[in-house]
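Work Package 3 (structural annotation) set out to generate three-dimensional models for the target panel prioritized at the project kickoff. During this period the team completed the workflow that converts sequence records into discrete structure tokens, so that structures can be stored uniformly alongside our sequence database. As a representative example, we reproduce one entry of 301 residues exactly as it appears in the project archive.
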Amino acid sequence: MELTVITGMSGAGKSQTMGVFEDAGWYVVDNLPPRLLTDLARLFVNEGTVDRAAVVCDIRGGEYFDDLGEQIDITATQLGVEPRIVFLEADDAALLNRFRETRRRHPLAATGTLQEGIRRERAMLAGIRARAEIVIDTSGLNIWDLRRTVAEATFAPGERQRLQILFVSFGFKYGAPSDADLLFDVRFITNPHYHKDFAPLTGLDPDVAQFVNDTPEMAGFLPRLESLLDFLLPAYAAEGKSHLVVGFGCTGGRHRSVVLAETAARRYRGRPEFEVAVSHRDISRAMLRAPGDADVTPAAN
């Protein structure tokens, strides 16, 4: 199994680093007492259910933190699992600013100043820092730069997290999805519902899709939509965003929005940097009656 120990200075970004590993599918344990490291690794090895784990061990473990180096050696010797150490650090000015902004108390500053706590912690961590395979200085990094830097430093290109994109179709009459990051109202496109043959169908039917694609509104909208998404989606991925929900809404969520969601998904599915899924939230809901077609379409809820 792969085992990574995340450690370093308080306020240097261990929580964000933990999130990067979680998003990449690793089993993550926060604030693990170092004495439990070998036992945890042994459990994973014997059970065979976890093949990639990351644990955060730092000075919150108090007096037990001194055992970290020894436990790393024991894990390697007894189990044949060589833990990789990722060490997060930052300069004193950056750490001071972060603690002042968050108003959190430094673990070693209970009886002294913040500066003294940082100094003591840096001295305590000197030994484990010297053993670290990866040392990341987060002093000048914002959250997204930090996450990207961690991913680039710790994962091979093929292992890095892909942006998960969910294209959702919905009907505005049932409310917009609350988790949408991007939302497009496509009710300006000619509605196939009022075409007698199309009312009982959905945007998954080829004839309905062809009808929507042939509208003059679609001809003007689609190239602009694709240009916008071609710019935004790689930018979100580069920023370190892990999930993105793109919503397309029409009146009932059965025709136009379905066609747009499927069209967008086809464009980006298969690209190595994206993981694409589609959801048609309201496609199975009862239809509105088309004028004069009460016998053809069922009544609305």
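Confidence is low (pLDDT under 50) at residues 289-301.
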